[in-house]
Structure formats: C-alpha cells, structure tokens
Design brief:
- By secondary structure, the protein is an alpha/beta fold.
- It is built from eight helices and 15 strands.
- Strands 2-1-3-4-5 form a five-stranded parallel β-sheet, with helices on both faces. Strands 10-9-8-12-11 form a five-stranded antiparallel β-sheet.
- The chain is globular.
C-alpha cells in the first residue's frame, strides 16, 4: 500500500505517519510505503497519477490548502482515496465536491486510525488495482494466476476474463508487478501470484487453474521462504481482523 501524508506541522506529520505505519504492520499488510510532505507544493513536485492508494492531508496549510490540493488531484485521478485530517468538520460541502472518503479528526489516536482504515476498506481497493501495459492493455493484478515468458512475449493467465499476451521483456514486466509482495518469480520467465496457490508441494505450486508451476533449484529456498511468510501474514491478518 502506497500512502502520502501532507501536513505543514512537522510534529503532526511525524506522529501521523508513524501511527499509520504501526497500524499497517499490526494489521498484517506485507509491505507498505508512507511518504511525508510538509506542503501540497512539495507533494505535487513528485506526484504521479495513480502513484498512491491513499492521500491524507491537513486542510489548513500554508500555501495551497488541503481543499485546493484535493481539487487539483481529482482533476487527474478519480480513484485515489482522499482523507482530510483536521480538528474541524466545517468543510463538508467542499469535501463532498472533491470526493473525500473520510475525515480523520485530530488529535489522531490509534483507534481513529483503525476506524479510518475499516471505513476505507482498502483491501477491497486492492482487489481492483491494475497496471497499464506498454501496449495500452489494463491488467488487474489480483486476477493474475501466473505469468510465463517466451519469445519476447509475456502470457498472463487470468482467473477472470481472457488471458493476456503482450510484447515486453521479462525484466520490464517484473518491474511492473513484482513490487507487489504477492508476486514472485519462481523460475526463469515464470511469476506466480501467491493468492492463487491451491497447493504447495515443496518444489512446486499448484495454481487455481490446475497448472503445476515448478521452482528452479537456485530460487527454491528464497521462494519457499517468501510463500511461508505470505501465508503467515494472511493468517495473522484474518485472526486480527
């Protein structure tokens, strides 16, 4: 999960970002990134459309206000979750205008952070995450079962819809999807989605479409370790949730 936090008060910014990291860790999210910015202008200096899943920002800031920043974001990104952090709920009409998802009331507490994530249903958002391939095709990440590379073509085996074939190098393709911790390369040219593993056979995965995908000996221990950590975190999240 990629999150941006914007607040011109340095102490507030530090506390909020650490509280979010703590919640995500306890909730069992495998990997996440929380970037902090002391102004909307600083944020826009590095922002890319679809670069974040969630943006939290103070409403009252020097320079560009949270409301004005949200308007600018919404002109280019209709999907990102927006949360206003404020001591006042006096901007209801403006927050509706920019499609804000939540008010996080200050002072921030662990319980308020938890309530926010429950309301946002970020796991539901994760299932709809997609990337755009160089040929313009949209690929929903959680629909992928596994991928296979050969003759400069990656074939993506999908659980929903038709399989995807695209001309791309394996290195470029892995840069697109392997930053997400549930994707792992288990052999040369083969990447599996841990969510779609039906059986773990020690040396192979049986995927949800019935295909057996084998691990290379060189990568076997690394892949096994990654899969066991994935299963542990999934169990931890279910117990905690």
């Amino acid at each position: 999960m990629k999150i941006a936090v914007i607040d011109d008060e340095k102490m507030e910014l530090s506390y909020l970002s650490e509280a979010i990291r703590g919640y995500l860790s306890e909730a069992g999210y495998l990997e996440n990134r929380v970037d902090t910015f002391q102004s909307a202008e600083e944020f826009f200096g590095v922002w890319e459309v679809q670069g974040y899943d969630l943006i939290l920002m103070d409403i009252y800031m020097d320079g560009l206000s949270g409301i004005d920043a949200a308007r600018r974001i919404r002109r280019l990104d209709a999907d990102v979750r927006l949360v206003f952090c404020t001591i006042s709920n006096g901007f209801a009409s403006e927050s509706y205008e920019v499609g804000a998802h939540y008010y996080l009331q200050k002072p921030v507490s662990k319980q308020r952070i938890s309530d926010m994530f429950k309301r946002l249903k970020m796991e539901e958002y994760e299932t709809g995450r997609f990337v755009i391939l160089p040929d313009g095709q949209h690929m929903v990440l959680r629909n992928i079962i596994y991928t296979e590379y050969g003759n400069h073509i990656v074939t993506v085996y999908n659980k929903k819809g038709e399989d995807i074939r695209t001309r791309i190098t394996q290195t470029e393709f892995e840069k697109l999807i392997c930053e997400y911790p549930y994707f792992w390369r288990c052999d040369k040219g083969i990447v599996v989605n841990f969510y779609e593993v039906e059986e773990f056979g020690g040396h192979f995965f049986e995927m949800s479409n019935g295909k057996k995908v084998y691990m290379s000996r060189r990568r076997e221990k690394e892949v096994q370790k990654a899969y066991m950590e994935f299963c542990f975190e999934q169990t931890r999240r279910e117990i905690g949730g």
